[in-house]
Design a protein that fits this description.
about 0% strand; 6 helices; mainly alpha; single chain
Protein backbone atom coordinates (compact mmCIF):
# COMPACT_ATOMS: atom_id res chain seq x y z
CA UNK A 1 0.00 0.00 0.00
CA UNK A 2 1.10 3.51 -0.76
CA UNK A 3 0.35 6.67 1.14
CA UNK A 4 -2.10 7.72 -1.59
CA UNK A 5 -4.33 4.82 -0.57
CA UNK A 6 -4.72 6.28 2.92
CA UNK A 7 -7.17 9.07 2.29
CA UNK A 8 -9.05 10.69 5.15
CA UNK A 9 -12.47 12.17 4.55
CA UNK A 10 -14.84 14.23 6.69
CA UNK A 11 -16.25 11.08 8.31
CA UNK A 12 -12.80 10.16 9.61
CA UNK A 13 -12.26 13.69 10.88
CA UNK A 14 -15.68 13.64 12.58
CA UNK A 15 -14.92 10.39 14.39
CA UNK A 16 -11.49 11.57 15.51
CA UNK A 17 -12.40 15.12 16.57
CA UNK A 18 -15.59 14.26 18.48
CA UNK A 19 -13.56 13.17 21.48
CA UNK A 20 -11.83 16.53 21.83
CA UNK A 21 -14.77 18.55 23.18
CA UNK A 22 -15.71 15.76 25.58
CA UNK A 23 -12.31 15.31 27.17
CA UNK A 24 -11.23 18.91 26.63
CA UNK A 25 -14.17 20.34 28.53
CA UNK A 26 -13.68 17.86 31.37
CA UNK A 27 -9.97 18.58 31.61
CA UNK A 28 -10.59 22.33 31.28
CA UNK A 29 -13.08 22.15 34.15
CA UNK A 30 -10.63 20.28 36.35
CA UNK A 31 -7.88 22.80 35.61
CA UNK A 32 -10.32 25.66 36.26
CA UNK A 33 -11.21 24.17 39.65
CA UNK A 34 -7.50 24.01 40.46
CA UNK A 35 -7.11 27.65 39.39
CA UNK A 36 -10.02 28.69 41.60
CA UNK A 37 -8.67 26.78 44.59
CA UNK A 38 -5.13 28.14 44.21
CA UNK A 39 -6.33 31.57 43.02
CA UNK A 40 -3.77 31.41 40.22
CA UNK A 41 -4.63 33.54 37.23
CA UNK A 42 -2.20 31.67 34.96
CA UNK A 43 -3.96 28.41 35.74
CA UNK A 44 -7.30 30.02 34.95
CA UNK A 45 -5.95 31.15 31.58
CA UNK A 46 -4.67 27.62 30.87
CA UNK A 47 -8.14 26.24 31.65
CA UNK A 48 -9.76 28.82 29.39
CA UNK A 49 -7.44 27.89 26.54
CA UNK A 50 -8.42 24.23 26.94
CA UNK A 51 -12.07 25.23 26.82
CA UNK A 52 -11.59 27.34 23.71
CA UNK A 53 -9.84 24.41 22.02
CA UNK A 54 -12.81 22.24 23.04
CA UNK A 55 -15.18 24.77 21.48
CA UNK A 56 -13.22 24.70 18.23
CA UNK A 57 -13.30 20.89 18.28
CA UNK A 58 -17.07 20.95 18.74
CA UNK A 59 -17.40 23.28 15.77
CA UNK A 60 -15.31 21.00 13.57
CA UNK A 61 -17.24 17.94 14.76
CA UNK A 62 -20.53 19.63 13.98
CA UNK A 63 -19.39 20.79 10.54
CA UNK A 64 -18.21 17.29 9.60
CA UNK A 65 -21.32 15.62 11.01
CA UNK A 66 -23.36 15.85 7.81
CA UNK A 67 -20.70 14.02 5.79
CA UNK A 68 -20.48 11.36 8.51
CA UNK A 69 -24.27 11.00 8.40
CA UNK A 70 -24.23 10.48 4.63
CA UNK A 71 -21.58 7.77 5.02
CA UNK A 72 -23.32 5.95 7.85
CA UNK A 73 -26.81 6.04 6.29
CA UNK A 74 -25.58 3.68 3.58
CA UNK A 75 -24.63 0.96 6.05
CA UNK A 76 -27.25 -1.79 6.43
CA UNK A 77 -28.87 -1.98 9.87
CA UNK A 78 -28.34 1.66 10.82
CA UNK A 79 -31.34 3.16 12.59
CA UNK A 80 -31.88 6.62 11.11
CA UNK A 81 -33.84 7.70 14.20
CA UNK A 82 -30.63 7.42 16.24
CA UNK A 83 -28.82 9.65 13.76
CA UNK A 84 -31.57 12.24 14.15
CA UNK A 85 -31.38 12.13 17.95
CA UNK A 86 -27.60 12.51 17.82
CA UNK A 87 -27.90 15.43 15.42
CA UNK A 88 -30.52 17.23 17.54
CA UNK A 89 -28.49 16.97 20.73
CA UNK A 90 -25.30 17.88 18.84
CA UNK A 91 -26.76 21.28 18.00
CA UNK A 92 -27.55 21.93 21.67
CA UNK A 93 -24.04 20.77 22.61
CA UNK A 94 -22.51 23.09 20.02
CA UNK A 95 -24.46 26.05 21.37
CA UNK A 96 -23.43 25.27 24.95
CA UNK A 97 -19.79 24.95 23.93
CA UNK A 98 -19.94 28.22 22.01
CA UNK A 99 -21.20 29.84 25.22
CA UNK A 100 -18.30 28.17 27.03
CA UNK A 101 -15.84 29.52 24.48
CA UNK A 102 -17.25 33.05 24.75
CA UNK A 103 -17.17 32.86 28.54
CA UNK A 104 -13.56 31.64 28.34
CA UNK A 105 -12.58 34.59 26.15
CA UNK A 106 -14.08 36.95 28.73
CA UNK A 107 -12.30 34.96 31.45
CA UNK A 108 -8.94 35.43 29.74
CA UNK A 109 -9.60 39.14 29.29
CA UNK A 110 -10.51 39.65 32.96
CA UNK A 111 -7.65 37.46 34.22
CA UNK A 112 -5.05 39.31 32.13
CA UNK A 113 -6.47 42.69 33.23
CA UNK A 114 -6.38 41.40 36.82
CA UNK A 115 -9.96 42.54 37.27
CA UNK A 116 -11.92 42.11 40.48
CA UNK A 117 -14.39 40.06 38.38
CA UNK A 118 -11.77 37.43 37.47
CA UNK A 119 -12.88 34.78 39.94
CA UNK A 120 -16.60 35.47 39.53
CA UNK A 121 -16.26 34.92 35.78
CA UNK A 122 -14.30 31.74 36.53
CA UNK A 123 -17.12 30.37 38.69
CA UNK A 124 -19.73 31.17 36.02
CA UNK A 125 -17.51 29.57 33.37
CA UNK A 126 -17.11 26.47 35.53
CA UNK A 127 -20.89 26.04 35.69
CA UNK A 128 -21.17 26.47 31.91
CA UNK A 129 -18.28 24.03 31.50
CA UNK A 130 -19.86 21.19 33.42
CA UNK A 131 -23.25 21.71 31.81
CA UNK A 132 -21.52 21.63 28.43
CA UNK A 133 -19.58 18.53 29.43
CA UNK A 134 -22.81 16.76 30.32
CA UNK A 135 -24.48 17.70 27.04
CA UNK A 136 -21.46 16.86 24.86
CA UNK A 137 -20.99 13.56 26.69
CA UNK A 138 -24.61 12.64 26.01
CA UNK A 139 -24.10 13.64 22.37
CA UNK A 140 -21.12 11.29 22.18
CA UNK A 141 -23.14 8.54 23.83
CA UNK A 142 -25.88 8.90 21.21
CA UNK A 143 -23.29 8.99 18.43
CA UNK A 144 -21.72 5.80 19.70
CA UNK A 145 -25.09 4.07 19.67
CA UNK A 146 -25.38 4.65 15.93
CA UNK A 147 -22.72 2.06 15.14
CA UNK A 148 -21.98 0.32 18.41
CA UNK A 149 -25.04 -1.87 18.83
CA UNK A 150 -23.35 -3.68 21.71
CA UNK A 151 -24.13 -0.63 23.87
CA UNK A 152 -27.89 -1.04 23.60
CA UNK A 153 -29.70 -2.37 26.64
CA UNK A 154 -32.04 -4.62 24.74
CA UNK A 155 -32.52 -8.39 24.75
CA UNK A 156 -32.25 -8.41 20.96
CA UNK A 157 -28.59 -7.48 21.27
CA UNK A 158 -27.63 -10.19 23.72
CA UNK A 159 -25.57 -12.89 22.08
CA UNK A 160 -27.26 -16.23 22.57
CA UNK A 161 -24.95 -19.14 23.40
CA UNK A 162 -24.55 -21.68 20.64
CA UNK A 163 -25.52 -25.30 21.13
CA UNK A 164 -21.85 -26.25 21.09
CA UNK A 165 -20.99 -24.02 24.07
CA UNK A 166 -23.85 -25.36 26.20
CA UNK A 167 -22.99 -29.02 25.67
Amino acid sequence: MTLKQYKMNQTHIHLIITHLPIFGSLLGGIVLIHGLLTKTRQTLVAAYILMIISTLGAGIAYLTGEAAEETVEKIPGIVKNMIGQHEDVALIALISLILLGISSIFGIFFAVKQSALTFKIARVTLIICFISFGIISYTGYLGGKIRHTETYNSPANVIQPSKESTE
